[in-house]
Amino acid sequence: MARDFEAYKKSTYKWEPGHEKHLRITKSSLTSDFDFCPQQYHFKRREDRKTPETDAMRKGTNVHNAMEEFYVYVRPNLGKVLKLLNDKNREEAFSLFVKSLPKPEEPYLLGEEEILLKRLEWELDRLEATQGQHFLPVINEDEIHVFTEREFVHNGKTHTVPIHFAGMIDRGFENEDGSISLMELKTGKWKQRWDWRKKEWKDDVFKVRGMRKEMAFYELLLLNAPDEVMIKNGLDPNDKVTHWGWYYPAANYIYAEPRKTRSMTSVMNNIAKLIHHYERNTFPAKFFYKTCAHCSFFGICDEAQEDTWV
Ligand code: SF4
Asked: Of 2.60.120, 1.10.357, 2.60.40, 3.90.320, which CATH number belongs to 1-51+137-310?
């Protein structure tokens, strides 16, 4: 989907009280960068220091683009694919599905194809189970912009912060009762830990918590989007998110659950914290040697220099 650059021009991460533009808050700036480390957020977002594009990022973009187009190209073939499935001809049904993927401009070199094929296998299962009912997404990489305000109190005075919430929602599917299930596609690894007491693998709680926050941010976008934005994106303004989940095809892992109110609370708390840091102009380091080792700003972060933590 083409990006709305005009909307982005109205906001900035370099915001300060009294700035003419809105403070921009996106899913990754809030739930990844700021949550991970306010200092990292400062380097990346406020100082606009570039981080090198990694293979993982390139792979993610390629897979997301392909899946977005898949849902467009598969539309005229759906009836045929379903008939083949019902005639027990899964092999041909699958090959018709695969033909609905766009041809990449450059050959895939980062494992995109395996991920896409796994994802299509799951979609074929879903098509068979639903018999096509609500199969196509009502949200397909839709970009949502919300311009709003939040108030905070400092030194007994109430201040208003103009905020621009922006984000592109992977996928939303309509449920039978008209509500929406949001689904996020990830191309990386899923994380589990061995539970010694129960002697079984358990989902990593931090990973689950992180995913829930991402999904709650999407829900926040939809909740706050003006009616005309919802209608422009082909959505009903009364649509409510009731469920969410995530696909990790590289790990053969899918998860879905009812939405969690506490995840939304956690996102709201993060927004309040972020505003608090802007208002005080302090973005402290959150040093933890294991995570900091992967930070692109390790070399320029005072907190990460050896003599400050040995
Ligand atoms: S090295 Fe660690 S503390 Fe420093 S900016 Fe990066 S994540 Fe934050």
From this structure: 3.90.320
